[in-house]
Every structure is written in structure tokens, then in C-alpha cells.
Amino acid sequence: MKKKITIDIIILVAILIFVNLVSLTIFKRFDLSKGKIYSLSSSSKIAVKELEDRLVIKAYFSKNMPGEYANSRRFVQDILSEYQAYSQGNLKFEFLDPADEQELKKEAQQNGIMPVSMRVIENDKLEIREVYMGLVFHYQDKIESLPMIKNTQGLEYDVTGKIKKISASGLKKIAIFDPDKDAPQQMQGQPAINAKFETIIQFLSESYEISKVDLKRPVENDIDALIIAGIEDSLEMSQLVNIDQYLMQDGNIILFQDRIVANIQQLSAQPINSDIFRLLNNYGISIKPNLIIDAQCGQVTVQQQRGMFRTQIPVSYPFFPIINNVNKENILVKNLDYMQLIFASEIDTTNIVGGISFEPLLYTSKNSSEVTMPQLDISYLPYINIDLKRMLIDEPKVVAGIYSGKFVSNFMDHTKDENAVGNTVSGRILLVSDSDFVKDGAGAGVPGNRDFALNAVDYMVSDGTLIEIRSRETQFTPLKEIKQGTKKFVRWLNILFPSILLILLGFLHYRKELNRRKHIGELYE
What we know:
alpha+beta; Glutaredoxin; Rossmann fold; 3 domains; eight-stranded mixed β-sheet; 23 strands; globular
């Protein structure tokens, strides 16, 4: 009998060891969350499967973490285990605690992982503790790092981005048009060149090789996409020709362009007079000289006099439309929860020329309207204490889309280049009728705006790997609007249902008690 028990225990242990060994290469997680945000996307799985050499990830994490960060280490370990399981043996990771080892501290700091001082209350005492929370990626002779992981939101995107960057043989190239690139000197007190777009440029530089061009010379052939944003003046003929010829060579242009320039402090707005619009009109691309207003919008804070005091109150400002009406058929925007545009205009889709197709990406809500020329009134006063949904009743308006197809050049007579091209085979222009949404100090801090800009670049250079990951975690989930009658029904149901249910249960209990008494009476008769 004892021998049989011993054999059974040995068999059980062998089975457990075998199952654990199999689990190192076969990984399965049942994720029922929205968007499956607690398991790797197919894009991450593909990225890690395509590793051609050994990738080692060193996780410098302190063991004695403050309470609010205790789960971060566990989450990081779980997600790295999943990456390892899908890597076909090419990814390994290890956790290191540099707390008491000087060599590990030095190694971590050399790799860009610096300790962070945190205040911790423990045993009724306040103490300052240095903690490490970073990842270092070693691949061949290259090193990349994530210096600080304060929360787990977006961690998969960061890790997959580092894997793609460190394992790539060469990054794709993005050129950004900077009209002041050759300015000899900046005016004192003025922002640095293109400083208004530095946030987006910084994010793009994590995955792409970024360069700035003035377009006075032809765009290099190896540029995968050209970004043009916020032009307010006319361009030189050479610049227009070089934009045209880059497109004619099947280039990808991303255009964030306002039609109206507005100043909310001065409550003034006027149309932009630039020949960039004549260039676009040649391609059948037109932006209406209006401003979109939308009942689904952001707010501005205004001062109002209340008796002897001036108070600040939030006011819905329809010139800041919140966009969550997107083209669900396009991967670029289908997972975006929302965006915040600032003084956007409507894209006119009635002038598209033959050979060009247009795919809309972003729409305003069904409660929209417009402010048109010549009186561009952007004051907030008409919208105070007003039901905007009753006031704004126009159909949704298109504010972003992609033009693609056979574009024809109108500048063949303006170039001396013998290699000039007269038309495209499959050129593409992605247009958003607003540039403020990606500017620092304006809309660049909105997660949805940043995600859209990064998705746009990924999409236009045909690298959709990261698009699927970037917007998986819910940012904006507004309650769905319901009819007034439905609201009243739900309200009265909440009031009456508990009482009705209690009365019904009491009645059933009373009937049961009567039957019990009747049954007992019959037994003793």
C-alpha cells in the first residue's frame, strides 16, 4: 500500500513538472476585459516572434516597494512572461534588486535606470526610500531602456515599441516641414523652432528617424512620410513644387492644416490666406472657410460677476468639439475613444477630382453646425445657459480623411528638373482640418490626440503593428444619452420597484403562513 502511494506521488510530481515545462512555451490567458487589455495583442506576439537573435530584458525593481506600486512589479512580471512564451526562446528576462548591491546600482545607472525617492509611511514612521522601477533591453550590441514604470497603463505599447526599435535594421524616416529651419537667429523670448510640436515629435522619435526640412530643396527619396502642420503664410514657389514632386513620387503626406486662425483671448478669428490651399485645390482637396461648432464639446473657464465678487465658471464651448464619431472600418481610428479638436473647419468632399478616392476618418456629432464668413464670432456668450443639443441640429461634418489615388501635378512648367514626375500611381494625403490638436499648450496633452497623430504616421508608412496596441485601454466612456421618457421610467422604477417587491414577498409569506396554519389545523381535527 505504501509503495503504491509513493508511486502515485512520484507520478503526480512528474506530471506537475511536465506541465510547468510545457507552460514555458505554451501560454494561454482568458481575458474578458474590454479590448483584452490584460493580454498581449496579436501585434506584440508577431513582433516578439520575429526576433532573430536573443533579447534579454533586465527588470531593475526594488522588492520593498511602496503599497501603491506593489502591483506594478507583479504586472510587469506577468506581461514579460507572456512575451517570453511567444518569443520561441529568443526572449529572456530577469528581475534584479539593486537596493543593497553597489555593482547593480552602478550597472542600472549606466543603463539609464535611476533611483526615485519616495516617501513611505511604515510602522507609524515616515521614511524616504529609494526605489528602482525600470527595464533595460539588450539585443546584440544595442541597448534601450524604460527608465521609470510608475503605472502599467500603456506598458505593452512601450515594451513592443522598444522591441521593434532595438531589433530593427533601420528606422523608417519621417520629415517634418519647418518653415523657419534656416532662420539665422531666433527672436529673444520666442519659442524654439517647432517647439509648439515638440511633444508629438518626441513621441515619434521613439519609433522613427525624424528630420526637419524647409522644402526649399527636393525631399529625399528615402523619406517615408512628410508631415506639414499649421501653415499660416504663403510658401515660395520652390516649396510648393517640392511638396508636389514628393507626392508625385507616391509620397505620403500628413497635413494638419487650419483654414481659420482664431485667438480665444482676443475672441477674434480670420481666414488664413496661404497658397497651400491653391495647391490642395489642384488635387481636389478643399477645406471650407468656416468653423465647426458641436454640442459635444469641451469647456472654457470664464469670469462672471456675482454680486460683489467675480467667480470663475466652466462654460461649454462648441468650438472645441469632442470627436468620438469615427470610421470604425479603418484601423487608424477604430479603437480611438475620443479626440479634442480646437477651432476645426469642415472638409468639403464635393470637389474630389476623378481618379482620387476619399475615405473619411473623423466626424463631428449629430448635433453640429458652423460659423461662417464674413462674421466669425467665436464669443462664448451666445452659448451660456443654452441647451446646445436643441440649438445645433446639423448633420455630422467631416473633419479628417485620407485622399488616395492618381494625383496630377500642376507644376510641371515651374520645375527645371528633368526627372520631374507628372502624376502619381498611388499617392496619399491624410488631412485633418486643425493643427492646434497636436500643439503644445493646446491639444497635444490629450491622449486621444496624441494617439491619432502617432497612428496616422504608422498608417501612412504602412506599419500598423503599434496601432492595435496604442488605444486599447479605455480613456473616455461617456454615458449613452437616453430619451427623457426613458429617464422618467427608470426613475419611477427605482422608486416603486423595491416597495412593490417587498409587498409581493410579504404577500407570498402571508399565504405560506396561512397554508401552514391550515395544514396544522387539519392534523389536530
